[in-house]
Predict the 3D structure of the following.
Amino acid sequence: MLTLYFWPGSSSMAAHIALYEVGLPFEARSLSFQKREQREPWYLALNPEGTVPLLLIDGRPLTEVAAILHYLAKRCPEAGLWPEGDLEAQAHVISWMSFLAASVHPGLARGPEHAHRIYALAERRLQDTWAVGSYSIADIHLFRLFWRFSHSEGFIPDGFPKLLAHRERVLARPAVRKTIEVEAAIGYEISRFIPPTGA
Amino acid sequence: MLTLYFWPGSSSMAAHIALYEVGLPFEARSLSFQKREQREPWYLALNPEGTVPLLLIDGRPLTEVAAILHYLAKRCPEAGLWPEGDLEAQAHVISWMSFLAASVHPGLARGPEHAHRIYALAERRLQDTWAVGSYSIADIHLFRLFWRFSHSEGFIPDGFPKLLAHRERVLARPAVRKTIEVEAAIGYEISRFIPPTGA
């Protein structure tokens, strides 16, 4: 049994997309961070860091986008989201996700100028149609961040031809359209990055 | 042929330790970031982000600590640094490394008070002897960061009994002692986090 805790439009969207991609049944529970539900004791008992996404696997908590995507991709190899058997390609998928989580994700919170500089590095990193070979969990992670950035105030599209084309390719996937439909119906509460301590 | 580019005492130490752990032959090339060697054109041609560690695999560049550790652990399964066959344990290793790269690593640059708050989350996350089951690449990554924090100005050891005991367990490993010996002989130039743009 899988349960996803998410905020519509936030980082958890990547996990939400991956769940539809692999086709496993799951229960989706949305939190409101404007109501600070992520700081309520019942939620901190599941995830002391007070972040989303959180995936419960038969009640056992798993946090961090990269980890949830990796788990789902490995559990459902038929979905083709992980380059089985190719160690270097696997390492590049992990490299992309680490770069996205550590460098790109905090970029937007540091202002539009910094964000444009960071996404210029992502634009240069994207050499081909997909982040690594064929469509993988790295593309889901990249899509979610750039999708958000491309809808932020002050976004200047010049200089991002590869990322914009990548965004459109990912937007065409049924799993992505389904996620956006479900999350938009709840209503986006996109906000600035909230540090894990909730400070 | 493997070549590691590193700065003594920096994040690249984790990759350096993993290379000694798996026992593959490699060439180690130290950079000086005080001389800004990471911004020189020959280095940016290999790694446009200007960061370490960088691992060249037969000349092909691989960046990000988590990715290099994953590659080495998967390439040398006999070293036992990756929980082969256990999908949930694998996901937890990835979760730790993502948490370390995105939340813990930038902590120190944001001042000692913030760092102590972030490491309190890491202390709570560490439930047992090792991060996930047996010694893994997550422990190498965690060790490097906490080792650095525990030697930083203003570090208060109270409140970190599990992380301090973990540090001592990892310090006892021959691969770790060897790395510290090699890097100390070159000389540490530990500095604050340098953003990937070099700004």
